[in-house]
Design a protein that fits this description.
The protein is of the alpha/beta class. It has seven helices and 27 strands. The longest helix is centred in the first third of the chain and has 57 residues, at about 15-70.
Amino acid sequence: MRTLNRAFRRDDEGSALLTVVGVAAVLLVIVAICASFTVAGLRKSKQDADWSAALAAAYGGAEEYSNRLSNDPTYSKYGNKLSPFTIASGSVSLITNTTANPAFDVATGGTWASVPGSGGRASFRYEVDNSDVAATGVIRLRVTGKVGDATRSILANIRQHGFVSYLYFSDYELVDPLIAGSCTVKYAWEGTATGCSRYPFLPDDDIAGPVHSNDTIASCGATFQDTVTTADPGNPNWEKANSSGLFGWILSLFGLSCSSSATTTFVKGEPQTVAKITMPTTNSTMKTDARCTYQGPTQITLNAGGTMTVVSPLTTTTGPGGAACGAIADLQKPAGATVNVPSGNLVYVGDYTGTTYPTGFSCQNSNAGWALTVSGVTLKYPATDEVAAAGDVSAAPYGCTRGDLYIKGTMKGTMTAAANWVYVNGSINYANDATDLLGLVGENGIVVRNPVQCNFLLPRLLEPVGLRRRHADRRSHDLAEPHLHGAELRSRR
């Protein structure tokens, strides 16, 4: 019996080892599968993290571009004109500078701009669409963020914030020293400006748009419908005006007065103090964005049907708009050229630098005026019997070859017009107050030219309602009560 049992035991020897090996193999397979899932999960987690981080890098790129634009208001002219997004958008006048900004590079294997603080792991590129910046101030970007192998793109609309963002903007709230005489120009919050006169807002002033002044805003019962900001650091940062000094004397000529008890209304709250906003020294950079360009004195009459009649006798080229801005032969006649308003675009009037004049054109009053006579019809400034205010506008009221704009009429569409001096020749109205918009940019200033019939001459009279200077003469005029609808930008009043 013992021998039989030992025989059975010998037959069972090794079976346990097979069981152990089989279980171990199964465990190894399970471990391998688990490890595989773990590695795949880690890989997926990293991809998800890179995917999310790439989106953040794209947003960082949009913010970086916005900062560049804030530091340089002309930065919208830079970009890569070879990028597919830029070509498709029809952007113009882009200057490629990938050396100064690697984010403009779009070449495969090219450079990327690094996200600060990422140690070079996160980067971005952007492509620029500036096709609408002149009309709307909006720049479109396609920004691509990259982290690892993950890339994500976003589209961003960036509106340039600066002096063009305001319906009313001023650097100084002073009567122009050319009118008031000798004046030490400084902000009211910096101390008394010796010899300078303040010019406050009046009860009839109703400003339906954002307002900013680097100076202290003075008001006598005006209404501000939108936000108001100032660089005045004081508290309060605006002041109530009264009928004292030169301003009070001017008001008295019209039987007006300004009481310090008049209530000024700030519909969206009291003025807020913000950083000083600077203006470009000239508007010459706007020429590159203009659809229509004219040279020398130019008169534009806006017509309610969406057209404008342009007289510009010294113009020899009309810019990118070509014939759509007027035939040269018609521009050099008093009747002018009637063309469609370049809606959504810019009109620029620059100085005439030539030495010859077309037939019928001549300089008047020792180059302080001009006249155009064709087929017995004459257009001229100053007009017959007009006494232009000496010293009122730079060295001469009207320049003979200066890039000045004379404008009036009813605006239909959206347009900005820039010139050396802008003279508002008559009331400016909108065909549709909800959709039409006109912007006027005068490098030196905007003047409401308002000749009136009077028994005496007041050569330096201020327009109390239109907030503008007037030229006095002995004739009646259609600006007895001027209406000026549009945005205004000025260095000082």
